[in-house]
């Protein structure tokens, strides 16, 4: 990837700056979807990070006099909900849980899947049978219902939602790693490591896992957008983040009862989910092209 | 072929056993003691213990699992706490209502997705290809529960063209036209995400075929472009498209349809799952999950077999 190196600001030679700029421009031109996706996701990340500074009110401040204020009313840029809570502030704070739901389960399942898939793929035999067949069982279950059942059993809350989504994501992540590793282990550099006396755990952690990272990350990134929609959906049902904490999925469900006269209450959080999911999907498409040319569409 | 069929069907057994074990484990670890629910908080410890022994709650977990599995296989899926009726008959009744919605949604998704994918591949890198790709990302990113609300607001509240939800109007009997009017919005909303995925897969599969040498041979033969694209290229891309479409239908029945049923009050399995979650009706919810697992597994098997039947290259593998 092309980026300005840390010391390039001190290096004043114009040719290097020009080169970096033109490289950046060429990168933006050939990887449009990465740029578009990064802008959309970056916007949401900025909103989430700056929520304590920028949000006009506390996301849980109830002000009944201003209930159902419209978009653009004085003091409420995006209006207020049935309890008079500022929708803009709730959207900004709610971005935090949506980002956590998009990133954390993928990271957890990604790390576990890398280890399990590498062990199964590289060693084969009994570990392969044990790991891959038990993953097949979980993979055979309908993912959304499995997440709902686990979340309902564990009880509501962000941590339990992350756990249930990680369980659902583990089988596909393990399977992708496994497929990558089975082709990887025939490569000469693995033989070279073996000949030079590396132990099996050393080969798995020093050779196999680092080399299977790129396609696994590409695959994970392609799922992030769906995780935003799916995770907010579980909150929408009432199993994820609990009130009064702000959450986009929950806000859509709360606003349903006033849809006919005050559509902004439930449609604005939906728009936020859409922007974040589309951002991740563009980013995922771009990363796949960049990191794993074999999967290019 | 027969051997493969038998092998694949036999593989259902561990998947279903494992799936039901997970479901059983979830019932078991769900918060709340069933004895509390039956006897209240003030029962004496002796009475509690007696009931525990009577219902076998002191037995080893594995013994409890197999006893439960025996009941499930005999059709005794327990009682819904909220609705006070046996779970299994209710699930079967709701299943057909969900099938109606998912068939309509699948039909929409297959027609729109496959045509968009073919157009996109044939006109690769043109403006219409870019438009379809961008629209497909939008459709993928659109939460169905949000799109449904917007559709209701526009077509029911503002324009008054279509009913806001339900399966049929209260006034009339279940007339075909009335049901269709209720079906159209939920079917399109539920079908949009699968349509986008099918379009992307169709495009990729078509591009693979279109760059092969025999395409040039067909053109040299003087065949019409239409015949080449639909009769030859699509015919070769078909196995991939069919298996992906089948998988999408599986996810549709158990995924997007769930949210869409909630938004449109479509009285199928999804709405039942929502009600059981909100009402903390564990037996009902786990019955629904168990049943859906069975449907999902069987559907995936069917897709796998169809894929092998229509694709000569893997038929013998």
What would your notes on this structure say?
The complex is a heterodimer of chains A (297) and B (317). With 297 residues, chain A is an all-alpha fold. Chain A is 72% helix and 0% strand. Chain A is built from ten helices and no strands. Chain A is flat and about 75 Å long. The model of chain A is unreliable at 1-11 (pLDDT under 50). Chain B is mainly α and 317 residues long. Chain B has 14 helices and no strands. Chain B is globular and about 90 Å long. Chain A: Its main location: membrane. Chain A: The chain crosses the membrane at residues 34-54, 99-124, 144-170, 216-241, 268-287.
Estimated share of beta-strand residues of chain B: under 5%
Helix content range of chain A: over 70%
Q: Which pair of chains has the greatest number of interface residues, and how are they split between the two chains? A: A-B, 49 and 52 residues
So how many helices of chain A? 10
Order of helices and strands of chain B: HHHHHHHHHHHHHH
- Radius of gyration of chain A, taken over Cα atoms and rounded to an integer in Å: 23 Å
Compute the gyration radius of chain B: what is it?
25 Å
Q: What is the name of the CATH class of the domain at 89-279 in chain B?
A: Mainly Alpha
Oligomer category: heterodimer
Q: Report the end-to-end length of chain B measured between terminal Cα atoms.
A: 9 Å
Low-pLDDT segments, ≥5 res of chain B? none
User: What characterizes the major β-sheet of chain B?
Assistant: none
What is the number of strand segments of chain A?
0
CATH level 4 superfamily of chain A = MetI-like
List keywords for this structure.
heterodimer, A: 297 residues, MetI-like fold, B: 317 residues, 14 helices, globular
Task: Outline the secondary-structure elements.
The complex is a heterodimer of chains A (297) and B (317).
Chain A: H1 14-30, H2 32-54, H3 87-123, H4 125-139, H5 143-154, H6 158-184, H7 188-195, H8 200-237, H9 248-255, H10 264-291
Helix pairs in contact in A: 2-3, 2-10, 3-4, 3-6, 3-8, 3-10, 4-6, 5-6, 6-8, 7-8, 8-9, 8-10, 9-10
Chain B: H1 2-29, H2 34-39, H3 45-54, H4 61-73, H5 87-122, H6 127-141, H7 144-158, H8 176-210, H9 213-220, H10 225-254, H11 256-263, H12 269-278, H13 282-310, H14 312-315
